[in-house]
Amino acid sequence: MSVPKLVDALASAQVLFDRATLEAAIERIAEDIAQAYVEGEVPVFLTVMNGGLPFAAQLAFALGERGLDLEFDYLHATRYRGQTSGSGLAWLHRPATPLHGRKVLLADDILDEGHTLLAVKHWCEDQGATEVRTAVLAEKLHDRCVEGIVADHVGVQVPDAYVFGYGMDYHEQGRNLPAIYALGD
Ligand SMILES: O=P(O)(O)OC[C@H]1O[C@H](OP(=O)(O)OP(=O)(O)O)[C@H](O)[C@@H]1O
Ligand code: HPA
Q: Are 102 and 141 in contact (CB under 8 A)?
């Protein structure tokens, strides 16, 4: 089966948030997060790959600028696998850093139905993390979110449409677009 083309999606897509707006949102999140830790604390900073990568990188710099050191690790859990609707969550990589007794800061691109963040948060707690703080660049507005998960820090709210760019893929394309787009009809 042929892969839908990014160029065709872009032709009918709508820009929801441009780069400057997203960068400002990340600075705002960083300000709040930096205040949530006491001096000298070093949380384990877990990037949820792949989509969380651009957001996590920018957030990490913004936190470094504010004097918060981070211990980096990452995980890869996926339930969309390049498609525009989700199914069962598959773990492709788990963090190697022991989480027992540690504070964890999770960074992901989007909280949509919430299954991914909820499962990852529970897993960190099962590993013995003393606190799991969650930060997402975007939160999708609808009433299909699984119970028990609310992101602690949210950059922007997006409408109930498939969105891509700034880490999020359109059939594994467009992750490095420096804006968030909503897919058109
Ligand atoms: O709130 P949910 O409905 O669970 O969806 C959110 C998750 O879906 C996307 O990951 P995806 O499965 O597409 O993996 P990817 O980051 O590798 O693209 C996104 O990066 C989040 O991790
Ligand atoms: O709207 C979305 N776009 C990209 N990836 C996603 N993962 C969950 N929802 C989305």
A: no
Q: Residue 84 has what pLDDT?
A: 77
Inter-residue contact 114 to 141 (CB < 8 Å): no
pTM of the full predicted structure?
0.96
Rounded Cα gap, residues 55 and 49, in angstroms:
11
Q: What would the pLDDT profile of 6-21 be if each residue is shown by its tens digit?
A: 999 999 999 999 999 9
Nearest residue (by CA) to ligand 2, atom 4, is: 168
Is the CB of 109 within 6 Å of ligand 1?
A: yes
Cα 33 to the chain's mean position, in Å?
A: 15
Q: Classify residue 63 as exposed, middle or buried by CB count within 10 Å of its CB (0-12, 13-18, 19+).
A: buried
Q: Which ligand is nearest to the CA of 109?
A: 1
The residue contributing the CA closest to ligand 1 atom 5 is 112
Provide ipTM, 2 decimals. Answer: 0.97
Per the CB < 8 A criterion, the answer to whether 119 and 89 are in contact is yes
CA 172 to ligand 1: nearest atom: 18
Q: Tens digit of pLDDT for each residue in 56-68?
A: 999 999 999 999 9
Pocket mutation for ligand 2, best pick of 16, 78, 110, 146 (most atoms within 8 Å of C-beta): 110
- Domains (ranges, CATH) in the chain? 20-161 (3.40.50.2020)
With a 6 Å cutoff on the Cβ, whether 80 touches ligand 2 is: yes
